[in-house]
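Objective 1.3, modelling of assemblies. Example input:
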Amino acid sequence: MAVKVVEDWLNACSGCEISILNIGDALLDLLPQLEFAHITALVDHKFYGQLGDGTTMEIPEAVVGIVSGGVRNEEQKHELEEIRKKVKFLISLGSCACYGGVPAQANMFKNEEVFDKVFRDCVTTEPAPDPADPNVPKWTPTCAAVDEVVKVDVAIPGCPPHPDWIADALLALLGGKTSWSLPERSVCDTCPVIREQKSGGGPVKRWLQNMEFNPEEGLEKMRCINEQGFLCMGPVTLAGCAGKTSVPRCIQARTPCRGCFGPIRKGARPMVEMMGALTSVGLDPKTLVDRRAMMNRYIGGHKVLTVIPARPAR
Amino acid sequence: MGKVINIQPVTRIEGHAKVSITLDDAGNVADTKLYVQTLRGFEKFCEGRPVEEMPRTVCHICGICPWAHHLASCKAADACFGVTPPPTAVKLRRLMQSIAYVSDKILHFYFLAAPDFVIGPDADYSVRNVIGIVQAAPEIAKQVVHMRHLGAQIIEGFAGRAIHPTFSVPGGVSKPMTEAERQKILPQAQELLEFSKFSLQFAKENVFPKYLDAIKSIGVIKVGYLGTVTEDGALDFYDGKLRLMDPDGKYEDFAYDQYTDYLGEFVEPWSYQKFPYAKKWGKLNMSLDTPVGVYRTNTLSRINVADKMATPLAQKELEEFRAAFGRPAHFTLLYHYARLIELLQCAETAVQLLEDPEITGTEIRVPITPRAARGVGCVEAPRGTLIHDYECDAQGLITKINLIVGTTHNNAAMNMSVEQAAKEFIKEGTYDQGILNKVEMAIRAYDP
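Predicted structure (tokens):
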């Protein structure tokens, strides 16, 4: 019998949902096992009745709830709380849901500063007051991860999460398991490049030039990106971006990791640990431009990124 | 004032929206609104970030068209650094964009739009979806899932990431294509081209003829159009000049950095999404009878502003389309037809690029040095023209950005189409879920 699922995106970009579709041919085997009681992306179920005359948000009961995106406004918060009440297992899908994601970089600014910019300081925008109609939900104080608001049973991080893990986690729950998690390994643990534990030293290079490599050769012949002098977040980032069988996706593109799968374990301090990793190969981590945002790009929820008070004028 | 009907969430679109329809005491439509309820604030939190990191930050604006934002951002960054990427790099960027758009257009047509046409606009919502299509047409569904996935696999195999890419970089791209890679991808691109031809043929024979009445009635409005064309007027997704066409078909062309002379954005208190409009045409007015300043983007708009398609098979299809519907064609549901003509151009372009010897060139990135500058980069995203406008300081850190993105251009037009559809179908308090779905079909055509 099919298992009932409720899925929705909160403060999200739809990339996680596309990743679900990227399960590929196996999707057609998985679909009949799932009954989507709600999924905004694909099915026309409505929260206020099919005739739009309801007065309260109605979320159907389901075994599994899947939410992508963090929590950015009061309505998303309300919906998430309603979903939590109606499902047995809640999955936070993707790094926005797990850590706040890229939009949580807004936590470096006061909400008023963001609204001031968007509605009153963009070159083509005719300055206007903030939209305040009751139909545009108020922002929450911060852009939060899902587990800052409700209890989460299964976290599938990644930006986007790899389809292998989405299928794996769903099949685990369908098979009666009550928990699922990725193994605690770093991107470096799955990266085949050559490491010699040293670099040329000096400042951390910006991404203004390509790495040195021979395109005809595999990654196992390329020198480690940190050791080439660039920032690569591999040492402090959870492995799994390429699924079960392949090498890390950004490295495959011959570009450095920026940490989209988040920290390797709960309680880790990726920024401190990454500064240590750069130091250990002889680079000066203090030279890294825009350090705080760069190293916390995907994990700005959980109060990791906060407003820094302006320095007093001299 | 009478009853309010709330359609929430708007489904089978790629974002967060809600429609309200207010009826008067007689049960006729007094007012409609399409509310966009989310705001993330990229314009603010990008300030202070290094320009070279922008292409892999702003791609997160949209997980369905991350390649479009990735490339628009790279072009804005190229302009900030004052560099021109080598020809091979431009071709590789175009190749990835073409393949990504093939997947996107397959997704929209079959997964999001087709349920309304294949299962039917009035069918019960529980079957009017892709799962219903899997049951009704399992062979086609299998092909669709396979082809969408094939596009993603091609991109991941070569460029690492299909969603939120990192491959394109200011000054070029991160890696060249080897001959072995080219030989592997070419037949796959040819497979996508065959499926694109099939899709257009399938729709022309089995879908569009049945829905001519719907095409002439749902969401119909007469407004202007914006899109990108090459110097000789061909439709281009990656580069060219912007063309703004008025509702009667007269147009003006302008360079990217002149966009502030032509476009303004209005803020309404009831939507987080702004309302871009053609400011030379007058003050924005979204009334159905006398609209002012309203223009559309996305598929129908592009094929309206272009003099021709860039590839031979797509050009033949455009000629047939124009013979039937004229230029500019205004019926909103024709967005779906135009989408499939564009699908064909994207697939043809991918094959052409893979057959071009320069695609395996090894000069792929020019050196870049930070400087204080402003750069405007545009591409055509599946949903419309992207405008990325960056200013940076001498260290190459962003000081100011302005973004006008695909669906935002269509905000005013979508609101008008919702009003038109609601007024067309809801009379004297009579409506059902099929009628409310037709209101949503007016939105879905824009693929927001």
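Chain A has two domains: 3-174, 183-305.
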